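Review form for a predicted model. The reviewer records the input and the model, then writes brief findings.
Reviewer: anonymous (R2)
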Amino acid sequence: MGSWSLRFLAGLGLLAVLLTCCSSQVNSCLTARSGTCSDCLQAGVGCAYCSEEDFGFPRCDLHEKILAHGCNAAYVIKATSKQTIERNEAINMNLQRSQVSPQEVRMTFLPGETRELDVNVFAPTKGPLDLYILMDFSNSMKDDLDNLKKMGNKLATVVQEISSDYTIGFGKFVDKVIEPQTDMRPDKLKQPWPDSDSPFSFKNVIPLIKDVNSFTAKLQKERISGNLDAPEGGFDAILQAAVCKKEIGWREGSTHLLVFSTESAFHYEADGANVLAGILPRNDEACHLDENGVYIQATKQDYPSIPTLVRVLGNHNIIPIFAVTNHSYMYYLKLKEYFPIAEIGVLQEDSSNILEIMRDAFVSIQSKMSIRADNRPKAFGAQFLDSSNKEVRYGAFNFKPGEIGKFKVKLTAQQKHGEQPVCKVDPGDKEGTIKVKPTTFDSAVNVKASILCETCDCEKTPTLKAKRCNGKGNLVCGKCLCDDGWAGAFCNCSKTSGSTKDQCIGPGMTESCSGRGDCQACGTCVCYNPDQYEGPYCQYDKTQCQRVAGILCNDRGSCVMGRCACSEGWEGTACECSKSNETCLDNKGKICGGRGKCVCGSCQCPDTGSGIALSPTCEPNFEFLRGVCEETRKCVQCKAWKTGEKKDEAKCKDCLVEVIMVDELKERGEVLDSCRFVDEDNDCTYEYTVETSKDPTNTKLLAEVLKKRDCPAASLLWLLPLILFLLLLLALLLLCCWKYCACCTSCWQNCLALLPCCRGGRMVGFKEDEYLLRQSQLTSNHLNTPMVRTGPPKGTDVVRWKVKDNVHRVPSHPRELMQPNPDEMIQFPISLRLNRLFSENLSRPESKDAEQLRQEVADNLNEVYKQIPEAQKVQQTLFRLQKNAGKRGNYTIMDTVLSAPRRAYPDIVKLTEKNVQSGNFGDLKVVPGYYTVATDREAAGAVEFQEDVEMVDVHVPLFVKDDDDDKKQLKVEARDVPLGIATIAKRFVNITIIKEHATSIFSFLQPKYTYSRKDGVAHIPISREIIEDGRTQVTYTTQDLSAKNKKDYMSVQGDLSYAPGETEKIVPVRLLELSEKDGFLEDKPIKQFVMDLSNPRQGAKLGRYPRTTVTIADTQEPSVMMFKKGNQNFSTLDQTYPIPVVRSRNEDSPATVKWRTKKSQCFDLSGSLKFAPGETEKNIVIEPFPGSAQPETFQLELYDPSTNAVVGERKNTVVNITEEPRSPEIAQMQSKGYVSPRGTTPGGRLLPPGNLKAKATGPRNIRLNWDPPPGNPVGYKVKYWIYGDPEKDAKVLDVRTPQAELTNLLPFCDYETRVCAYNSMGDGPDTNIVSCQTLEDAPGEPGRLAFNVISPTVTQLSWAEPAETNGDITAYEVIYTPIDDEMKPVGGAKKVKIDNPKKRMLLIENLQSAQTYQYKVRAQNSVGWGPFRDATINLASQPSRPMSIPIIPDVPIVDAEAGDEYDSYLMYSNDVLKSPTSSKTPSVSGDDYMSNGRWEQNFLFPGGSTTRNLSASSSPMSTLSSNYKGGAGGSFTTEMHTTYMTGPGSPRRRDMIGGGIHTTEVLMRKRSENRGYTDENIRDSIVIGDDKFPDLNARLSPGVPDTPSRLVFSALGPTALKVSWQEPHCEKDVLGYCVLYQLLNGGETKRLNVTNPAENSVVIHDLLPNHSYLFKVKAQSQEGWGPEREGVITIESAVDPKSPLSPMPGSPFTLSTPSAPGPLVFTALSPDSLQLTWEKPRKPNGDILSYRVTCEQLHGGGDMRSFNVSGNNAETSLTVPNLTENVPYKFKVQAQTTQGFGPEREGIITIESQDGGALSQYNSQSVTRRDVFQMSPEMTTRTNVSHTMINDPYFSDGMMMTQFTETGSMVSRQVTREVVQRNVTGASTVTKRMFYES
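Model under review:
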C-alpha cells in the first residue's frame, strides 16, 4: 500500500478520534498533542499522557479517551489536584462579632480547573461599631460646624440605635498648606478668616472614644479654617484616617464607618504636580501623623488616586458615607460607583440633616453585603454564587443581620495568562493566599491556592539513540524525538532527501496539499493558514462544518477534520442536540413520563390510542381539554361501577386511570381535582378525587372513588301526578306558541329551548357567510367578525374557533408545496382578556400603569410558557378594549408576541387554553372563555357568550403580507362548544381580500413646514402622484401638539377631491395672533401642530409623508436673498448662463423674489425665483438662442421679495459674456459637419474630454466645464470625491452636456474631480484630476459654554470652537444680559467682540450680585455671523468660598459696567490683579507689582499678555533689581536676583548637605518683529536646558559626552514602555547609547545597547505592572562613556474594572469578530485637539474593514461623536478636533470585519491647560544655569503614568523642552511632549538667572 494510502488511513483514524473528543470546552489536551509529556499534563484539567511505545493514537488526550483507545493503564500518566479544609470552627451566634466559616482552606488546581467552596457568614444585629466623622473645615462650612456642635445628644441617640457597642471619633481637613491651594501671606497663614485657625491639611481631633459627652465637649473648642481654591484635600484626610489604625483607634472585629462631610469637589492624584506647589512624589500610603494628630507630609507628597483609596479602604474594612451638598453631589455620586459598598446623602446647606443621612446610610449598608476575594493571584478568577447557584454582583447578597448567611465562592485557574501558558508565568501570579470575605468584615476565609504544573519523570530518563528510533533520535516517554535532519514517527525520513509533490496529493485530489500548503520533505504538508486548514493534505477547512442559524457548530463545539467535535453535553452533526434530559423530565422526575423518548432535548411521545392528549413530557394532559374531571369521568364510571360509554371491557382497558374505592375522600386542596357526576345509567350521584401516583414508576392517574353513591328511591309512583301536571302545562305552552308563532321557525326554536331536554334550542354561528375586503382600505390586520346566538339567553356558551390563510390555493400550488420548516423560530401573537377593568392610561405604552402591568404580564406569561421548548420571552405587549364583547366589553385585552419554533403551535394552543380555563396565568388573573393564538398562516381561539348576550365579535387575524396573492381567501370555522349547551348553526365564514394596485399616491411634499403668525394663513400643499388617471379623494385633518386649536390656529378637516389630471391641492390653515399675555414673553415656546392624511379612495394609497408637522414662528426674521457673487463670467460657447442666488435665515419657510435683466442688448427677461422650505441656493438660468450669443455685459436685479423676505446687499450682479476661441477639433467638426475618423481610439472608444475646469459657485456647489472630445459621445460621467478619500468612494453624475453642476457638497471643503465620455462602445479614459474648494458658509453655533465662577460678581466664560466652522473663524461675539425669572431682560445687553479666534475665553467683572444673566456667544467667518449658543446662570447660586482670581495668560477681561456696545478696548489678566474690588475700570499699568512676598511679572504686547507668579513665601524678604515694561517693537534685557532667606539673621539660605550654592540668571527679552518672528501662530512654551547639574569643579574629559538631557517615559500598555532622551552635548561624535533598567527594590539589571546614534528612544515590553523601575541612560564617544541620567517609572494598572485609569476591553464576543484593539495612546496637539492611536487587534479573525471610534464627555453633556477609520491604512490613528479643555472624555474603539464589530477598547483622557515652570530643590551642587522661558502655556495630557525623576532640579511638566549652549548663537533641539509626575529630593538655596522671550 502506497505511502499516501497509509497517511490517508492514519488521517481517518485521527478524524475518528477527534470526533469523539469532548470536554467542557473544546478539548484543550489536543493543543499539546505535538508537545512533551509535561506539556500535556500542563495543558488543562483532565489531560493524560500515554507513554506506551506501540500506542497508535494521539498520546495526549482526556484520560477516559486514552483508556478507551487501548492504552495500558500502567502507562497512563496524569496529574491530580486536591482540596482540604485545614480549619473549620463553627459560627457562634452568641458572639456579637462578624464571623466566617471555614477559616483555612488549601486548594491545588490544574490549569483550567474550577473548584467551589461553601462559606457561611454571620453579622450581628448590633455588633461593634466605629464611627469616624471627617469634616471639611474650610470657611464655607462654618454654619455646618456650629450645627454639629449642637447635636451631641442627638448623635448619641442615633449611634445607640445602630449599635450597643460603639465608639465615635472626629477629624478635620482643609488642603495642602502650599500655593496655590493656600494663601501663603504671613497674616493669612496665621488667620485666614476672622475667628479661625491656621490652615492645615488633616488633623485627627478626637480619636475613637466611647464617651459621647467627652466627644461633644472637645468638639466645642474647634474653629473653622480656610484655603484658596475650590477643591479640597479630603483624599489626604481619608487615606490618613484609614492607614493610621492605631492613632484613629479602629478596633478589630467592628464595623468601620467613615462619614465624609463637605460641600466641595476633591483634589486627586497629580493635582499636587503644579507650577507653584512643586512636583510632589506619589503618595506612599503610609501613616504620617505626629503626636498632635497632624498630617505632616502633606506638602511633601501628592494626593492619593481614586484606585488607591478604593484599595486602602477595602484593606482596612472601612465603608465611606459621603454627606455632600447639591453643589458637589454629582462628583461624589460618580466616586461612589468605584467602591464596592458606599453610601451618599445630600447634605443641607447647614448640615442640619447629617444625622438622618448617617442613619439612612447605615440601614442601607446593613441591607446589602459585598463579597470580595482579596490578594487574588492574576492566574485565578473568582465568582460568587448565592444559595441557588446564581452569580451575584457587588452588594447584592441579602444577608440579614443576626442570621447565618450562605454563599459559594467559585475559583477558576486560567489556562493562559495573556498569551502565555499559565505554567510559564511568575510563581507569584499563580499561587498565593486569597482572602474571601464580606467587605465590612475583618475575618476572612484564607484560601491557599496554587496551580499544579506537573512534570513527567519519564522525561528525566530518555533512551538515547533508541533502536525504535532507528538510532536517529531519543526515545522519551514512548515517543521518538528525532535528531536534526531526520523526521517521521520513527526518525526514518531524511529531511535532505528529495521529495516530489506527488507524495502530497491525496486520493481524489489534483493539487499538492489541496492547494493550501507547501509540500515538505517526507511528503509532509505544511498548511499556509493552520488556523483555517488542517489534515494530512490540508484538505479540511475549519470554517466549513455544519451550522445552526448561521453559527458554526452551534457555538457548542469546534470544527475538526471537516466535522463538528461537540463540547461535553452536546451532540449531533452540528452540535445542535443537548445530551441533558432536564428538559424532558416530568413532574415526577421521570424522563418523558416513562412513555416516550428524549431526543435532542424534547420528548417524542407515543400514540396512546385512547384519545387522551399528552403533555410535552408525555404525561396525560387532561387540563389541555375540558379538565381532569371531564376527561376521567367515563373511565371512572366503567372501572368503578361498570356503567357509561366505556362499560365494555375492551374500551375500559385502554383507560389510563387506576381506581381505588375508599370510604372517605381527601380534601380538595390535597389532590388535582375533586369530581361529582350523575350516572346517566341509574341517576346515581358519585364522587371521586384525581391525583398522580406517588409511585414514580406508575404512569397512570389515581382516582379514589367514594364507595357510597347517592341514588334515588326505587319507587316512582309518587312522580305520576307531577308528570301529568307537567304534560298539561306543556300542552298549554305549545298551544300558546302555535297561536302567536305559527309562521316563525325561530320562535318555535325559542319555545323548544325552554324544554330542558332540547339541547338544540340554543344555537350559535357566524352572522355572515362571506366578507369581501380590499387591501388598500384595510386599517387593521384584524377583522371583527360578529358571531350570534339564538335561543334562550340564559347560561354561558364558549365557542372555540380557528382560521386558516390561503384556503383558495389547491394542494398543487407552488407555495403550498413549499412546506415550512418546523424548527423555524416564528412569532406567535397571543391575546388574553385580563380580569381587570380598562383605563385610559393603559392605552399609552409609556405610562406608569401600562409599564407596571406589562411587567406583571411578562413575568407570569414567561413562567407559564417556559414549558414550551426553546420558547423565548414575550415582547411587544400592548393593551386595548374589545368592542362588542358582551358584558366583558370594559375589561382589558392584552396582546403580546411569543417567539418559539413553528412546531410548538399545538402545544402553545393547549397550554393557553388550559390556563385560560383555570382563570390564572401564574399569578395573573384572566377571564375564562377568551383567547387567541396565531401564527403567520393560521390561528385558534375562543369567545364567550355571557348570560343575556346575543352577539360578540371574533377578532380574526387577516395575515396580510406583501407577497399575498392578488386575491386570497381565509376560512374561519366555529369548531365546537366546550362549555354550554348551544349547537353550532352557521359554522363557516369566508373572508376574501383583494390586493389592488394603487391608482394614485397621496403625500405631503415634505415632513415639516414653518410659517410666521404674520402670514395669517399656512398653505399646506398635498400632492398626488397619478398611476392610473381618474377621480379620487383623500381625507385630511389637523391635531394639536404644542399649538392649541382656537388659540394658535384654527383646526381644519375635510375631504379633497382630485379631478382627472389634477396633481396638487392646497389646504389653508388660519393662524391666530398671539394673546396679549403671551406677547410679552421673550423666549416663547415652540408652537406646532400636525396634519394627517387618511382614507384614500378609488384605489389610492398614502405615500412617503402621510403626516407633516407645522411650526408657527412667533418672531421670525425675514429671509435674506441676494446674488452669490457681484460678477458672473460666461463664454459665448456656454449653452446656459446659471446665476446663483443664495438665501440665509428663516430657511424653513417658502420665499420668493422677482428678477429682471437691465442694460442688455440681447436679453429682455424677467421672472420669479421661488425657494422651497429648506432650500438655500437656486440658479437663475438664462438660455441664449443657439448661435446668437454675442459678447456683452449686462446686469441682473432682484426686487419685490415676498412678505417674509428681504433683498440683501448684493441685489445686482454684473454678467460678462466673452468670446473664446474654439478648439481646432471642434472647429473642424462644425465646419465639415462630420466626426473626424481620428477622434476615437482604434477600438472605437472616445478620447478623454479636454480643458476640464472646476469653479466653486457656492458653499455647496461646484460648476464644471470641459471641451467635448472628438467623436460622437452619448454622455459624460463626472466623478467627484472629497480630497483625501479613496477614488473608489467617488460619486458619479451622468450628464448629457459638457458641463455639470455639483450640489449638496460640504462648505469650505476640497474636492477632486474627473470626467470621462462614453458611447456605445463604453467609457473612455478619465481626465486628469482637477481640484476645487467650495466657498465658505456661515459657521455653526459654538460649543458648550463653561463657567469658572470666581465670585458672585466675577466669572470666567469659555466656549469651544463651532463643530462646523465652514471656513476660518475670524472673531467671536459675546452678549450678556440681566434677566428675571421669566427670562425677560431687566437691563441693557452688553456686547464684546473678540477679534482673536484663538482666545475662546472671557473674564467678566462687576456683574450685579445675585442677578441672573443670559450669556450668548456666536462665531464669525468671512461669510458672516453664525447662530448663537446661549446659557443662563446666577453666580450667587454657586457655592460661596474664598477663591483667588486665577491667573490665565491671554484671557480678555471686560467690565460689566462699561459701555453698551463693543468695549473700546479689552484688558488682560494681569490688569485684574491691580484692580481694587470696587473699581469700575481696572487700571492698566506695565509696572511691576509686588506684595506679600509674591512677585508679579507683567508683560504688555500686541495681542495678549502674560502673568507669572514666582512664590517667595518661604522668606520674609524678596527683592527686585529693576523693573521692566515692553512696548510694541521694543527689545530689552533686565537682570534680576532673588534672595531666599530661611530666618532672622540669615542673609542667604544655604543647603548644608554639601554646602553648594545654586545661582541662576534670569534674562527678559522681548520677541519682536525685527528679530524675524513673523508667524502669528507660534506657540510659546517653557523651555529649559540641561537638567543635570554636576559640580562645577568636576569637569569631564574633553570629548566625553555630557549627561543625556532628559528622560521621557511613554506608557504603551500595562507592561510596555517607551523611553526617550535628548542627545547630550559632546565635543566629538556620539557613537551610541546604553539603557540600563532594574526593579527599584532590587533584582537583575538588564542592558540595552543602542548602536545607532540617531536613535534616541527604545521600547521595552517585559515590565511588570504596578512595579517601580530604575532607568539609567548614558552616551558613548571615542573618549568613553559619559555620566548617567537616572529616572524612576511606575506603570500603574487598574485595581478595579470601573477605574477610569485602566481602559478595559468590552464584553466578550462570539463567532469570528475581531478582538479588541490594542491600548489607546493619546497625544495632545492643541488645547482642543488630540491624536488618538491604537494597535491593531491581536486576533483580527479576518480582514479589518474599518474602526469605529466614539467620543463622549465622561460626566455627560454634549453629544456622542462617532468616527470611522479605514482598516486598510498601515497606521491606526485619528485626529480628534473640537474638544474642550479640562473636560474628561471617554473614547471607545472597535474593529469591524465581515462578521461584525468586535469588543471595545476604552480610554479616558483630559486635556488640561497648565502654566509653565517650577522651582524645585537639588542636592549638594553649585552651578550656573541659563534658561529660556516662552510665555504661553503648552498642553498636558493626563494619563495613568507616574514618573519619579532623581536629581532633576528643573523641568516643566508636559512642556516643550529646548536645550542650548551659548556660543554666539542659539541651537535648539526639541523632544516629544509627554505627561509626567516627578519627585525631586533634597533641598538647596537657589539664585536663578532666567532668559525670557515674549
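Findings: The mean pLDDT is 75.
Further findings: The CA atoms of residues 1259 and 1335 lie 4 Å apart.
Recommendation: see findings above.
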